[in-house]
Please model this.
Amino acid sequence: MKKAVISLMLGTTLLISGCQSAYYSAMEKVGYYKRDIMVNRVEAARESQEEAKAQFSSALAEMQALLNHDGGQLQDAYEKARDEYEAAQSAADDVSNRIDKVEDVAQALFDEWQTEIAEISNAGLRRASQNKLNQTRRNYRQLLSAMQRSESKMQPVLTAMKDNMLYLKHNLNAQAIGAIKGEFNGLQTDISRLIRDMNKSIDESNRFISAMDKH
Model:
C-alpha cells in the first residue's frame, strides 16, 4: 500500500512537471519565453500581495467595528467581520499560489540558461552570460526571500482571526466581545508588521522586474 502511494505521488509529480515543460515549450513556439513568463508571474505575485494587503486591512477594520459595536444587531457586525476574514484567507492562498508559480518558472529558466551557456563557444560571450545569470539569481534570491517572509507572517494573523471568529460565533454577546479586546492590540501589531513586510516584498518585486527589463 505504501509503495503504491509513493508511486502515485511520483507519477503525479512527473505529470505536473511534464505539463509545465510542455507549457513552456508551447509558449516559446509563439515567441513567449521563460523570462517573459517569469516577469509576468512576478507581476501577478506583486498584484496578489497588493490585494492581500488591502484585504487584511479591511478585515482589521471590520473587527475593530465589531469590537466597538454599540447597539443594534451584533450578528450583522459579526458576519461582516467573518466575511472579511474569509476574504483575507482567500487572498493569502492566492499569494502562496502565485509565489509557487514564480518558483516553478525561475527553476526552469535558470536550468535552461545554465545549460545554454555551455553551448556558447565564444569565451567572452559565455562569461558575460554567466555573469548575467549569476546576478539574476542573486536578485531572485532577494525577491523570493522577501516574498516568503511576508507569506510566513500571514498564517499566524489568519489563525488569530479565526480563533476570534470561532470564539465569537459560540459566544456572540457583549461579554464575549470584551473578552477578546485584550488580544486586539496584538493583532493590530501583527497586521502592521505583515503589511510592512508586504510593502518590502512589493518593492523587491518592482526592483526585480526593472532589472529583468534592462537585460
